[in-house]
Specification:
Layout: E1 4-7, E2 13-17, E3 30-33, H1 42-47, E4 53-58, E5 63-67, H2 73-89, H3 111-133, E6 137-145, E7 150-157, H4 165-180, E8 186-189
Parallel strand pairs: 7-8
Antiparallel strand pairs: 1-2, 2-5, 3-4, 4-5, 6-7
Helix pairs in contact: 3-4
Length: about 190
């Protein structure tokens, strides 16, 4: 088995490609922080046994692993590679049952606001998420504030905590949404 690794724009996160499906076709990505519920995610449980692994993100065909501030990849990367290799060689399934993804937006929209939100979600799904997935991350729509035109997005995987995240939000996504959806005035990160 060969596991490919790729750098991401976030120096604290590496992307591991095991050469096979991770979350499954059509299922949403899963983000787990250290100390979070890993009962349905045996690979995450295994990776969190490694000191200094603080976040694990499962994408369609990749795993993004984020290290702690004091850790160095030259020491941590072999341990992460070994854990992923051992897991897959033993026939493990990363997510035994797809963890319940958090609700993307609990707000209800009506009329013209509903149309605006659908446009925003479509742009994020078709233009933003594929691009950030290539870097080992994900960006999810959380809320649209119709009073002031603010869109709130949650950054996951390599995008969370990335030094380039503000630039991605402001220069990339905000400009894209403002161009196609004039009702959008700004984009903010949701926590």
């Amino acid at each position: 088995m060969f596991i490919q690794t790729e750098d991401t724009p976030n120096p604290a996160t590496l992307k591991f490609l095991p050469g096979q499906e991770v979350v499954g076709e059509g299922k949403p990505p899963v983000n787990i922080e250290r100390g979070g519920d890993v009962s349905g995610a045996p690979l995450a449980e295994m990776l969190f046994m490694i000191p200094d692994v603080v976040r694990v993100f499962f994408g369609s065909d990749f795993i993004s692993v984020t290290r702690g501030d004091d850790a160095q990849w030259k020491h941590l990367k072999p341990a992460v590679l070994g854990a992923i290799m051992d897991f897959y060689v033993a026939g493990g399934v990363p997510l035994t049952d797809q963890l319940q993804a958090p609700m993307e937006d609990e707000h209800e929209y009506e009329g013209i606001t509903l149309e605006i939100v659908e446009q925003i979600k479509e742009l994020i799904e078709l233009r933003v998420r594929p691009a950030v997935a290539a870097d080992g991350g994900d960006i999810v729509f959380k809320h649209f504030e119709e009073d002031d035109g603010t869109v709130y997005l949650e950054m996951r995987g390599a995008c969370a905590g990335c030094p380039s995240s503000t630039m991605t939000l402001k220069s990339g996504i905000e400009n894209l949404l403002k161009h196609y959806v004039p009702e959008v005035t700004r984009v903010e990160q949701a926590f």
